[in-house]
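FAQ: What does the model actually see?

It sees only this:
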Amino acid sequence: MPIPSGTPSVDRTLLRDDVYRRLRDAIVDGTFGPGEQLKDGELAAWLGVSRTPVREALLRLGGSGLVVALPGRSTTVSAIESQAVRDARDVVAAMHQLTAREVAGKLGERDLDRMREANRRFAEAVDAGDVSAALDADEELHRIPVAVLGNRAIETVLEQFDPLVRRAERLRFGADGKASVERHDTLIDLLASGDAEGAASIAYEVWHSLSADDDAEKSGRG
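And it is asked to produce this:
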């Protein structure tokens, strides 16, 4: 498994959640691609931690569908399979739909302004073809209503299934990014006006617009 060069080791007091996030992000952003074998010893050396938090992180990643672990043999990055993406997408869309319905009319002006600013950066990243920046801005935008709602059950579900969808989304932004900007604007306006059903509908559409079949085909998988 090729380990990225030039990446500084993190502090040895790195928490388990931080190890998980680093490995999760490396899979989502394509640093570790589908089918690539992940060796806990090499990953531990890369991150500057012991093997224990790495092994725990790999177990969590298995639960999210980002890796496939064969006990006593190997752990590899999962393929981008259409059915798995479709299932995760439907769950994520439902969680954001519920969130939008619950927080419509309850977001403060600061929250709405933060969403607008995130969408502005998202639009700029799409125009520039910067997929990583687009994903970061998109995640920030959608995280705001979820944080305001404060429903830990929804947060837990999204934490598990969102990464799988995000990995597939990297293939979508080139073709569908501009449409997402418009959907974001509509979502923000509906949340601001207190239109709960309208906001819920567009929130679901934002996520359900991801075509799992197209993404799997582009990746050569599924």
